Amino acid sequence: MADEIRHIVFDIGKVLIHYDPNLPFSRIIPDEAERRHFFDTVCTHDWNIEQDRGRAWSEAEAELIALHPAREPQIRAFRQYWREMVPHAYDGSVEILKSLIADGHDVTMLTNFAADTFREAQEMYPFLTLSRGVTVSGEVGLIKPDVAIYKRHAETFGLEPAHTIFIDDSHPNVEGAISAGWQAVHFTGADKLREDLVARGLRV
Predict the structure, then answer these.
(1) Domains in the chain, ordered, with CATH?
(2) Is the Cβ–Cβ distance between 164 and 6 less than 8 Å?
(3) Predicted model pTM
(4) Would you report the helix, strand and coil content of the chain in percent, each value rounded to 5?
(5) Which of 86, 147, 166, 182 has the highest local Cβ count within 10 Å?
(6) Strand-pair partners of 111
(7) Are 120 and 83 in contact (CB under 8 A)?
(8) What single DSSP character describes residue 89?
């Protein structure tokens, strides 16, 4: 039987708020094949994750512009139109978050996010300020699923790993939490999350 849950840790992107770079770029690069090529070869996932690790946007843009000078406007558009990539919250998940906090549970957040865009996200979505605290990858220079960021979060907020449950939409990030000694659930939607938490003894 799993240990009692005393700490609940939420991921943010695709758990509490939607994220999709295609939203602004469907306008910037209307052709779907060209847009896919752009994300595969220019503003790639690996390039973007370095901002989550703490690299400044100015440095990230300069690196790509040097390699793809003809793409400069599109490269700069990635940061310029970032807010359009996070257009709405997932109301069901936010309701669960707020309910857990209101009931006195210990809730924190652990997210792969660039430091500056995270502050913008908090302005757009004030519920991102409600938990006891948050570890932002871009501020600590570590990213999920590196076990070190889970350990850093647990140490920062005094969490007991075996009594901690982590909620993330990414299988590798869930496995990272388990490797750090946490319990974890893979997020696929609010209804399933509610079931998973109830199954572990939480009233949601």
Answers:
(1) 7-18+88-199 (3.40.50.1000), 22-85 (no CATH)
(2) yes
(3) 0.96
(4) 55, 10, 30
(5) 166
(6) 136
(7) yes
(8) B
